[in-house]
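Moderator note: this is an archived Q&A kept for reference. The question asked for a predicted structure of one protein chain; the sequence and the answer are reproduced below.
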Amino acid sequence: MKQKINFYVIFLATFLLIGSQLFGTHIVGGEITYSRLSGNDYKVQLSLYVDCINGQPGAIAQDGYANISVFDGNTNVLLSSLCQSVLRQSPQRITKLNYKCIKNAPNACIDFYSYESIFNLPPNANGYIIAFQRCCRNNTINNIVDPQSTGVTFWTRIEGNSILEDDNSPVFNNLPPNFLCTNAPLTFDHSATDKDGDSLVYELFTPFLGADASDPRPDFNNVSNPPFSNILWQSSYNLSRVMDGSPLLTINRKTGLLTVTPTKTGQFVVGIRVISFRNGIRIGETKRDYQFNVAVCEFDIVSSYSAPAFNCSKTVVFTNSSTTGGIYHWDLGDPSTNSDTSSKYQVSWYYKKAGHYTVSLITTKNGCSDTFKKEIDVSDSLSPVFGNDTAICGKFKKTLGISCVGCEYKWNTGDSSAQIDIDKGGIYSVIVKRGYCQFQDTIEIKANEIDEFKSVNIFTPGHDGINDYFPSPGKLDYVKMKVYDRWGILIYKSDYGETGWDGKIKGKDPIDGVYYYLIEFKDCKNPNERLTNGVVHVVSEK
């Protein structure tokens, strides 16, 4: 009995060990591509990236072949007769350093395996979906939920012959980086080549789930059918923030140039795809699902600078943050001149034309050099709209505004047109926005319409905000006045633009009664002074 128990324990331990190796954490990333050969034959390639330090050896050994599934492109039904188990080729270790002048490279090890086979795919108006599913990813991944139980689905679509008779998928030109360094800018060429010359567009995407710990290597009877589910991001991550960085990881839609300065160590899953267009029609894509390993690195020298990615002025200031004490060479990327270089530590440059520019900085010290490149956009400056404040004499009609291509307008009057018509004085302001640039301008228009003097014959100085002054404030810019009591004694006088009489006599409270005034006035149409006189009654508020 004791012998049977020992045998059972050994068997169970062996089973658990093998099982753990089957779904051991080792998958770093991958993609699937295809090329049309002749007739119905397509060469399908699965690229698989494996962690050769922390990956489970048993799981890696199990991947000596890959189950590549074929589904109908419309019904998503598995086409079992077209599926293949494909043997892998010898591994290629990714050793290229994507940083210069690094002293001690982090302990990162990525092996690239290629699985290639010819698939005979009969004409099908629905097209085909080619997929590979495997579990699991590394359990130390920072940016997705439950990584140790999360598998992968690498897949691609071959469009139906009703849409496309002949096509080859775009292929990435470079193997992905084996590691990234914190606080060090990375510029990585993630471009692709399309054999057919199709137009290519690059973007990030959310990677896909596939397989799980209970069935880490599903056979053709247990694979998941499309549509495939996406991985779940951890709460602080999303497609706009796939990893910690400043600046964050982005990819140029036109060039495939990937840039990031990581700020946190760890492992981060990132999806990068290239989409092909022919005659304006989307015909295919290649998706690379990959784990970026970020570590602390030590450098002999670092070249780096900061500048706004989007500039609303044609003068751009570049702030050098490279290793100090070096030799610097700036290439400001201005094709209109050959003098767009500098050896200064800090530089600024005026770009004559709006556009997209690539600016590079090479820093050299002690025989070691590093190059940093960044892309910037420069927009035409938005000029002031109105000019100086102005005064207008008499009744008027005036048009305010500006016209610029692609601009949006927001007036304080509520209008959203490029121009507005006004016939009253006041303060007018407009916000002009074009793309990421915004400009605000304000103008005050004073409308003066005095052509004869009219005023009240009674006022009630009580400082309650109602009829407190004589004459009313609206008349004061062009009025000067003298006030006499009934004995002809001058008790108040004012000059042009001064505050009106508040009823006080030598600082004392108003005395009710009748007062005589003599007023000189003029208006914007007639600069000559004219005289008027009369009486005004003061009724103080007790």
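Archived answer notes: The domain at 458-538 is CATH 2.60.40 (Immunoglobulin-like).
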